[in-house]
Amino acid sequence: IMKIGLVLALVFLWILHFYCPQAALKKTPLFDFHREQGGKMVEFAGWSMPVQYKDSHIVSHMHTREHCSIFDVSHMLQTKVHGKDRVKFMESLVVADVGELQDNQGTLSLFTNEKGGIMDDLIVTKTDQGYLYIVSNAGCADKDSAHMKARLAEFKAAGLDVDLEFLDEALIAVQGPSMSRVLQAGLKEDLGKLTFMTSTLATVFGVPGCRVTRCGYTGEDGVEISVPRSRVVELTEKMLANSEVKLAGLGARDSLRLEAGLCLYGNDIDETTTPVEATLVWTIGKRRRQTKDFPGAAIIVPQIKAKTARKRVGLVSTGPPVRQHTPILSSDGKVIGEVTSGCPSPCLKKNVAMGYVDAAFAKNGTALQVEVRKKAVPAVVSKMPFVPTNYYSG
Ligand SMILES: *[C@@H]1O[C@H](CO)[C@@H](O)[C@H](O)[C@H]1NC(C)=O
């Protein structure tokens, strides 16, 4: 009977594992480290991630703008595309002119669908190591990998030479004006030569096999470091030994990217928005606009000239915080759109938000209103970034 009891208990625990969301959350290689460092863990896209540490999210935000913060972004999907038809493969999925990228140069791009909607945003880097290096969103990881695998099958069936490798590496973002001083101490290569959106392989603080890419999602100078998972705690600890550096979580990451005017997939862009509506036309390669050979080009390219009925804009307001789904009103009170993300800006001490409005109201400086708790509050359409970016151009 005891044996049966034990078996039943194990079966119960096994079932619980599938029904209890906490137990099923995925963990990055820094999970235990986050908890040791006082990280408050929350669910994000199926992962248990730190939303903040001991400092408040505002303190972390300001620390990133003034000094340097490390963010764990290991939950993002990292993929290598191999084979001599890799550029053609990638261009069959995204809007960028991948062919025109220099060796070790990357760009922000978009996976689009046949209806012109945005399936995900990603960074694609054309390395000089014979592969493309892709980083896309954790929340879209299953969708992106299935999408790439389906296209891979088509390419292989057509006899083309391409292969996918989904990486098991950790990924950390080191962001802020002191990043270059902090990182240079652990790097043989001259960081002065690594300009915004370029990438290199390097040994970092004695950890070999790191890919260092000068990019990030805070608007600050920064890098993302792809590092073998077994060495990521060690690398993070070595950088944290510098008093300029602190850990920062998802809370700071969200307000930093919003001040920088950067979209969060699932909030500000999704499959119902096109690159033109999202004012991301700059991501569409010039040649790709002519060849019209990316998914949804038949819908997206004509929108560039004809304009769209709605457009993503930035909004600044004072008073109560503006959040996702807050209605946007014209000055005479008609609903003309909706906020897709918003927060009080720690740097500007005003509310910043982005959302979609009827195109007639999209001009910088247009006086609008946002409806917060049934009250109309004045808001002004503003150019983004709200806070000037600080990317390193050399
Ligand atoms: C946007 O409009 C504001 C007035 O609301 C003005 O001060 C600012 O210079 C404008 N910015 C640009 C880039 O046109």
From TrEMBL:
Location(s), subcellular: Mitochondrion
UniProt keyword annotations, A-Z: Aminotransferase, Mitochondrion, Signal, Transferase, Transit peptide
One Pfam family hit: GCV_T
SUPFAM superfamilies, per the entry: Aminomethyltransferase beta-barrel domain, Folate-binding domain
Domain Aminomethyltransferase C-terminal: 310-387
GO molecular function: aminomethyltransferase activity; transaminase activity
Residues where substrate binds: E224
GO CC annotations on file: glycine cleavage complex; mitochondrion
InterPro entries: GcvT, GcvT/YgfZ/DmdA, GcvT/YgfZ_C, GcvT_C, GCVT_N, TrmE/GcvT-like
Biological process (GO), any one: glycine catabolic process
Keyword Transit peptide found: yes
Subunit structure: The glycine cleavage system is composed of four proteins: P, T, L and H.
Name of the protein described by the UniProt record: Aminomethyltransferase
Organism this protein belongs to: Myripristis murdjan
